[in-house]
């Protein structure tokens, strides 16, 4: 199912066109973000979801949300966490921050969302690096990072569906092993 807080989200159109249930729970219907988040939980439970994927979702969730789906909520972020995360780290700010800071490599992350009191602090499932070029603009960097974000999000979902993801403390193990052919470099 697809659930959004924005009636204009393209994901709703795509879902409906594919015959997938799609719902909007606009903030206007609720007195607080917490009430809306609890309504999201209720809707997701009614559809017996196995995994909650926050893609393009730029709000901090109430603690009850990840508590309702322990280790089953994942989120994308347009930086190589833990760099450029936190409450104000909504695109294109992390990408602009990477340029301002002078990073040579930027990127994106897919992480678990936990009830740990932090924002963008969950264990990292996947990351992808993107070269930062001397003539980059924020828009150019945003576009390259977004392509990688889509790719690694699909990888992370597939790994979870295949039962390959295991959480050990803060480390997320995905069954990826180092190649054994030839010398390794860092």
How would you describe the overall organization of this protein?
By secondary structure, the protein is an alpha/beta fold. It has two domains: 1-49, no CATH class; 51-173, 3-Layer(aba) Sandwich (Rossmann fold). The chain has helices spanning 10-17, 33-46, 64-68, 93-101, 138-161, and strands at 2-4, 22-24, 52-54, 73-77, 105-112, 124-131, 166-168, 171-173. It has a four-stranded mixed β-sheet with strand order 3-4-5-6, covered by helices on one side. Strands 1-2 form a two-stranded parallel sheet. Strands 7-8 form a two-stranded antiparallel ribbon. Helix 1 links the parallel strand 1 (2-4) and strand 2 (22-24). The protein starts with a strand and ends in a 13-residue tail after the last strand. 26% of the residues are buried.
Query: What name goes with the CATH superfamily of the largest domain?
Result: Formyl transferase, N-terminal domain
Mind telling me which CATH architecture of the largest domain this is?
A: 3-Layer(aba) Sandwich
Roughly what is the average pLDDT, rounded to an integer?
Answer: 90
- Structurally, the number of domains stands at 2
Molecular shape: globular
Calculate the terminal CA-CA distance, rounded to whole Å: 41 Å
Query: Which CATH first-tier class of the largest domain would you pick?
Result: Alpha Beta
The parts where pLDDT drops under 50 for at least 5 residues are none
Q: Which class best fits the helix and strand makeup?
A: alpha/beta
Looking across the biggest beta sheet, what order are the strands in?
Answer: 3-4-5-6
Number of helices: 5
Fill in the CATH topology of the largest domain.
Rossmann fold
Rg result = 17 Å
**Percentage of residues assigned to helices:** 25-40%
Largest beta-sheet details: 4 strands, mixed
Order of helices and strands: EHEHEHEHEEHEE
Strand content: 15-25%
The counted number of beta strands is 8
């Amino acid at each position: 199912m697809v659930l959004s807080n924005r009636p204009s989200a393209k994901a709703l159109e795509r879902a409906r066109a594919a015959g997938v249930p799609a719902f909007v729970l606009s903030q206007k219907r609720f007195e607080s973000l917490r009430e809306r988040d609890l309504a999201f939980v209720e809707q997701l439970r009614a559809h017996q979801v196995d995994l909650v994927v926050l893609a393009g979702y730029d709000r901090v969730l109430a603690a009850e949300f990840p508590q309702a789906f322990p280790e089953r909520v994942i989120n994308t972020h347009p930086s190589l966490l833990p760099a450029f995360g936190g409450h104000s780290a909504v695109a294109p700010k992390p990408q602009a921050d990477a340029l301002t800071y002078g990073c040579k490599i930027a990127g994106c992350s897919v992480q678990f969302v936990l009830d740990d009191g932090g924002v963008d602090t969950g264990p990292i499932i996947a990351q992808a690096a993107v070269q930062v070029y001397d003539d980059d603009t924020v828009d150019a960097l945003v576009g390259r990072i977004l392509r990688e974000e889509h790719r690694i999000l699909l990888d992370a979902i597939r790994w979870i569906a295949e039962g390959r993801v295991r959480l050990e403390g803060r480390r997320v193990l995905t069954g990826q092993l180092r190649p054994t052919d030839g010398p390794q470099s860092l």
